[in-house]
């Protein structure tokens, strides 16, 4: 009877590519290019006009009135993935602001329904992106950052990043989002190393596996260092009680 105990699988190993899973080799789960700061088609000006002064409108309790006045816009003029992401992010901000924003009456309760001007396009954009229509990490962190200095040695260093939108306009909220964003960027090294480790294991290359594991450990160390900076500019009291 043949002895198959030492036989290796004959199936060819196809190395995985991060790009095939919509993961950036340089930015991890963030887009490779900075998110759009405005939708290019003027058709979406009603949305962008609200976002231009979003914090002021929210502070003055004008959000609900403005959202109710907006037309119900379609999503057929969104042409790229980046535009859909921008649309999802700003619709998420407006939707949650509508729910919790008041019209000047302190006793006014949270809204139980969203008007069609928000709900219809939000659901359509969410379905395209295969997300649920609710604010999430992607909306406030992954697709809500900008590079401050294009000539910086490390473009994705946390001190070179800024948020595009926040609810409160506060440094604390912005910093909370940016810590997450910076961690995602730094962990791209680890994601690449995971793939390198799997290739090394498949090829019985102990040196490559060892190097990849060290890179994964280094990436996790960088992430921990960034996370430890959360308290620098995000006060727990402000974040919990004010934001």
Characteristic terms for this protein:
243 residues, mainly alpha, two-stranded antiparallel ribbon, 2 strands, 51% helix, globular
Note down, in words, how this protein is organized.
The protein has 243 residues and is mostly helical. The protein has helices spanning 45-52, 54-59, 63-69, 81-100, 116-129, 137-142, 171-186, 188-202, 206-227, 230-233, 236-242, and strands at residues 145-147, 161-163.
Helix fraction by DSSP (H/I, runs of at least 4): 40-55%
Biggest pleated sheet: 2 strands, antiparallel
Count of distinct strands: 2
Written as H for each helix and E for each strand, in order along the chain, the element string is HHHHHHEEHHHHH
What is the percentage of strand-forming residues? under 5%
Supply the number of helical segments: 11
Shape: globular
List low-confidence stretches: none
- In what order do the strands lie side by side in the largest sheet? 1-2
Summing up helix and strand content along with how strands pair, one would put the structural category as: mainly alpha
Task: Return Rg in Å.
Answer: 22 Å
């Amino acid at each position: 009877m043949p002895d198959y105990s030492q036989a290796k699988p004959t199936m060819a190993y196809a190395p995985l590519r991060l790009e095939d899973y919509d993961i950036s080799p340089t930015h991890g789960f963030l887009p490779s290019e900075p998110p759009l700061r405005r939708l290019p088609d003027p058709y979406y000006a009603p949305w962008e006009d609200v976002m231009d002064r979003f914090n002021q409108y929210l502070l003055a309790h004008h959000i609900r009135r403005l959202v109710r006045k907006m037309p119900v816009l379609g999503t057929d003029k969104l042409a790229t993935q980046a535009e859909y992401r921008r649309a999802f992010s700003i619709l998420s901000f407006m939707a949650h602001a509508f729910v919790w924003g008041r019209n000047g009456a302190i006793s006014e309760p949270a809204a139980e329904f969203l008007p069609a001007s928000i709900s219809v396009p939000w659901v359509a954009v969410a379905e395209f992106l295969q997300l649920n229509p609710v604010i999430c990490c992607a909306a406030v962190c992954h697709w809500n950052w900008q590079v401050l200095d294009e000539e910086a040695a490390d473009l994705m260093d946390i001190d070179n990043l800024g948020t595009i939108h926040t609810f409160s306009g506060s440094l604390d909220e912005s910093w909370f989002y940016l810590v997450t964003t910076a961690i995602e960027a730094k962990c791209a090294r680890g994601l690449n190393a995971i793939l390198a480790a799997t290739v090394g294991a498949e090829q019985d290359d102990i040196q490559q596996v060892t190097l990849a594991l060290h890179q994964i450990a280094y990436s996790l160390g960088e992430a921990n260092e960034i996370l430890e900076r959360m308290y620098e500019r995000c006060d727990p009291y402000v974040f919990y009680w004010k934001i």
